[in-house]
Structure of GNAT family N-acetyltransferase:
Amino acid sequence: MVTYTLISSINDVPDSWDGLQDDDLFLKTRFLRATELGMPNTIKPYYIAVFNEEALCGIAILQHVDFNLDVSLDEANSSLKKQIFKAVNFVSKGQIIVLGNLLQTGQHSYFVSSNFSLDLFFETVYNAIDELSKRIKAETNKRVKCILLKDYEITDRIHSQDNFLKQNHFFKVNVQPSMVMNIPPQWNSFDDYVKGLNKKYRRRFTTASKKGKALSVRLLNQVEIERFEPEIFKLYNEVASNATINLFKLPEHHFTTLKHFLQEDFYIYGYFLNEKLIGFFSLIKHNDTLDTYFLGYNNELNYTYQIYLNMLYRMIKHGIEQDYKHIIFARTAMEIKSSVGAKPLEMVMYMKHTNRFLNRILKWCVKLMTPKKEWQERHPFVN
């Protein structure tokens, strides 16, 4: 018999949770405990454990989100786009459930044993989502408006679930790609990367390096992360507040909490001008992959010292020197990430409105606001 448990704290998941899979750090309890304690106050995590004859055979991550599309309408560059953003916010504002983690790019939402039916797994997960919807209604007197399944590469097994997706009225949403760099095995040092750049982009690297010479860069230890916590949060917020769309705001202690639980699997590099922190970026070690995480910098100083571009080069340097095979740069700022060698990886999500009529409207609105490729892919390496 197949059963499931809907769990509201990572401390209460089965003891066998971590033993079910070894590949995905972002489904391990130490990462989930860190993010649970450092979660934005508009997001409440839940966990699903699926059992077959009392043996754990699948796990999934849910997030209950108090959703309000915080849109900088000045950045929405047409009146039509502004109206579409407003329509989406009107239709979906309120309680939503996410299968996955809004803080991460990529499929870190579920794992199911290879010997268990994928159809039955998703049917069971949906039953848990339905239970959570009823629980939210009972506790808050608010109805869940939308359900989001995020985010999947085109090779993910969820795309084989046509019957599940159609029967439950999910529609596909094309989203911005994740920018990924695959590190060639012949790159043994950062110099090998620089030598591989063509003349145009090598000059660009040289110019950026010269502008950033006045800055000192160092890897921060746990004590320093705690000491610079207010400055780190301020710099993060300076960048986040300039984003066109904000789905959440991290709490100030988020980075300190991640470092406490992840230790040597979590890095923060600090950028200093005259001993004053003016920028940082964070990285997560994920097997042979380096995942870039949140960053922040002083916008007024960014152009003068090419802070952001120099951060991208430093991420690549770290990835090569620590012998990673891939660097996940995530989405946003695709063109500049492309200019340092990252390639777009197509990603999709699935979503639905719980009201059948509004689901049709939402599908139409989301299709109109789905980003077209408005950036030019760069090719920085010698052919």
User: Anything to note?
Assistant: The longest helix spans residues 118-140. The CA atoms of residues 104 and 288 lie 17 Å apart. The longest strand covers residues 55-67.
